[in-house]
């Protein structure tokens, strides 16, 4: 997912608040309505104009992306399969 790749690369993120994007991004970026170009431009401007905000979002992104490792995904998927298998008995 592009959001996770951006977090790994240390890029501060502005994203639209649709689908699973808010769940993936968490507090590691700025969410804006999908149909609001003014809000998008404003959020990008905030990031470009504030070194402290950029630093904060980059740090939060690096922490956040670690929650989405392939190992974690595989472990959670296996745990779900095991729960479902127990329910079918």
What are its keywords?
89 residues, mainly alpha, Rossmann fold, 5 helices, 2 strands, 9% strand, elongated
Explain what this protein looks like in three dimensions:
The chain is mainly alpha-helical. It has a single domain, classed as Glycogen Phosphorylase B (Rossmann fold, 3-Layer(aba) Sandwich), CATH 3.40.50.2000. Helix content is 66%, strand content 9%. It is built from five helices and two strands, in the order H-E-H-E-H-H-H. It has a two-stranded parallel ribbon with strand order 1-2. Helix 2 links the parallel strand 1 and strand 2. The longest helix is centred in the last third of the chain and has 18 residues.
Task: Provide a concise account of the structure shown.
By secondary structure, the chain is mainly alpha-helical. It has 5 helices and 2 strands, in the order αβαβααα.
Please describe the topology of this protein.
Blueprint: H1 2-9, E1 13-16, H2 21-25, E2 29-32, H3 37-49, H4 51-65, H5 70-87
Parallel strand pairs: 1-2
- Helix share, percent: 55-70%
The span between the termini is 36 Å
At the first level of CATH, what is the class? Alpha Beta
Whole-number radius of gyration?
17 Å
Number of helices: 5
SSE order: HEHEHHH
Q: Indicate the structural class.
A: mainly alpha
The outline comes out as elongated
Side by side, the strands of the main sheet go: 1-2
Q: Quickly give the CATH architecture.
A: 3-Layer(aba) Sandwich
CATH superfamily: Glycogen Phosphorylase B
Low-confidence sequence ranges: none
The total strand number stands at 2
């Amino acid at each position: 997912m592009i959001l996770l790749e951006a977090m790994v690369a240390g890029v501060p993120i502005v994203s639209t608040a649709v689908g699973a994007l808010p769940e993936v991004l968490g507090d590691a970026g700025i969410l804006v309505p999908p149909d609001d170009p003014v809000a998008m431009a404003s959020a990008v401007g905030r990031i470009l104009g504030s070194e402290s905000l950029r630093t904060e979002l980059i740090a939060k992104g690096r922490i956040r992306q670690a929650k989405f490792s392939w190992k974690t995904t595989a472990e959670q998927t296996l745990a779900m399969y095991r729960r479902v298998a127990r329910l079918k008995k």
